[in-house]
Amino acid sequence: MRFSTQAIHAGQPPDPSTGAIMTPVYLSSTFVQEAPGRHKGYDYARTANPTRSALEANLAALEQGAWGLAFASGLAAESALLQSLSSGDHLVCGQDLYGGSYRLMTQVFARWGLATSFVDATSLDAVRAALRPNTKIVWLETPSNPLLTVCDIAAIAELAHAQGARLVVDNTFASPYLQQPLALGADIVVHSTTKYLGGHSDVIGGALVGRDEALYQELKFLQNAVGAVPGPLDCFLVLRGIKTLALRMRQHCENALQLAQHLAAHPEVRQLAYPGLASSPYHALASRQMRAFGGMISLELQGGVERNRRFTTQTRLFSLAESLGGVESLIGLPTVMTHASIPAAQRQQAGLPDALVRLSVGIEDIEDLIEDVDQAIAASR
Ligand SMILES: *Cc1c(COP(=O)(O)O)cnc(C)c1O
Q1: pTM surpassing 0.90?
Q2: Does the active-site annotation cover 347?
Q3: Are 37 and 148 in a shared domain?
Q4: Same structural domain for residues 142 and 47?
Q5: 127-174 per-position pLDDT tens digit
Q6: Per the structure, how many domains does the chain have?
Q7: Does the C-beta of 339 come closer than 6 Å to ligand 1?
Q8: 3-class SS at 232?
Q9: How far separated are the first and last CA of the chain, in Å rounded?
Q10: How far is it, in rounded angstroms, from Cα 334 to Cα 147?
Q11: To test the ligand 1 pocket, which listed residue (78, 93, 97, 98) has its Cβ within 8 A of the most ligand atoms?
Q12: 265-292: pLDDT as tens digits
């Protein structure tokens, strides 16, 4: 089966007891057993729930994995993964990453004895130099958040494996429609299903997907033992969102490319990042490892932080809000919103300017989006 067919059907045969075409929302905390310990694969819903199983099988198929595990949020998925490490282990992590991931590593797991080196993962030399004998995981976001840098998944997988480390890719920004890290050599894919997979800004969720069976057993154990599982209605909402993932992603990409081209020609735009522009330093690499370039753009207008801050309050269609990946367009100022949990010194080192504006380009009519951004640029002068 090809991608869109899998998105609609994988893991979701019609319900065997009723024929319901949509996977039912199994609101049941426990399941009746025929004899002690003998049941139909479900005993208690933290351990497994049929709606969650459908989502997990679907995500595994879309990422070309062998298994999927769903969690209550993207950060819950990341936590489970980090809980598989031990005190004294080391991570190498791309320095341009979601603020909450940075906070989890530096303020939670650092206290448990996990050390993290943050490096410019667009440089293979920087990744190689940061690897240590006790490095267990190399962690990438590509395209990254919010600078939209792109790093070479296949080359970094080789570096990590030569050191005996696993490669983890947070694929939230691309979605499996645009990029499949496992096929490029990664060992584990992380998702915030809150974003493009859910796609309608109505659910919080996360997932891990991989191929290795022993790793599955370890992470499945943690999913149950720690217990940060999603509810069945949340799983249903993500499953429903995924059915239109391919359609939505095509429109997100088309709109973002047109808006980026328009902004590239605007005399008041000082800096613009979108890997789909031929002028982007990441265009060639992104063309190799992605199907198209995604729906996220970051930019800076001339005139400093105040001007850019004003810009984020002048749009009418782009709503000023955290998050991304929904059908509606959003605008944000990462350093005071999504990335406020990264200290100023670290942001500076990662080259994240205070004036940077991030756009999540939705699937509205592109003419309306361009008109909105143009009027907001004018109104912010
Ligand atoms: C939102 C996000 C997360 C965290 O996911 P939650 O569902 O908010 O917990 C992790 N990584 C990236 C890239 C994100 O955008």
Answers
A1: yes
A2: no
A3: yes
A4: yes
A5: 999 999 999 999 999 999 899 999 999 999 999 999 999 999 999 999
A6: 2
A7: no
A8: helix
A9: 52
A10: 10
A11: 98
A12: 999 999 999 999 999 999 999 999 999 9
